[in-house]
Design brief:
The protein contains five helices and two strands. It is mainly α. It has a domain of 44 residues. A hairpin with an 8-residue loop joins strand 1 and strand 2. It is elongated.
Length: 175
């Protein structure tokens, strides 16, 4: 494999249930192996963002935005939706109490069910049995739980990635 005329730090990892190893590459040779492996974990946070973006925010197969402008527009819409969800009463309560935010997917599902309950309530008007409506809301809460978000950095700490003194000599000088 060509190295593009540069040295790379290569780590091979193989989990017990995997047949082939996976390789982690780092260009900063002053990082320790542990730092590289810990930083690799944070790469998966972007995958969680993409899942929310495509699956729960409606930008999946239906998106018609193409090119750089299209992707920028989709990203802006997605971030605006995430921002708007911060003002939902369940999310707001979590944030005010310094608790992890709810996931976009579970919060979206909850909003859909709240809209359905509101429709039933409006449709039935005065004829609705409040006790049965409360029972419906309680069952919905049990069937569609709100899940903590893995996209937000709550309860996670970024590793202290400091150059190892013995590897400091490999650090690239940036001009």
């Amino acid at each position: 494999m060509p190295s593009h005329n540069a040295k790379r730090f290569v780590i091979a990892m193989q989990y017990p249930d995997e047949k082939k190893p996976r390789y982690l590459l780092a260009s900063d040779l002053s990082w320790r192996t542990l730092d590289i492996v810990q930083a690799y974990f944070f790469r998966w946070l972007i995958e969680v963002f993409f899942e929310d973006w495509k699956g729960h925010e409606g930008w999946g197969k239906l998106t018609k935005h193409t090119g750089e402008d299209g992707s920028r527009s989709s990203l802006i819409l997605s971030l605006l939706l995430d921002h708007a969800l911060f003002f939902h009463h369940h999310q707001k309560a979590r944030l005010e109490n310094k608790l992890p935010a709810w996931s976009v997917g579970s919060l979206s599902q909850r909003i859909h069910t709240e809209a359905l309950v509101q429709f039933v309530q409006d449709f039935c008007g005065n004829e609705i049995n409040e006790h049965k409506l409360d029972k419906l809301k309680e069952r919905i809460d049990n069937i569609i739980p709100l899940n903590p978000s893995t996209k937000h950095m709550s309860s996670r700490t970024f590793p202290q990635m400091k150059p190892s003194p013995s590897l400091e000599r490999f650090r690239k000088k940036v001009a």
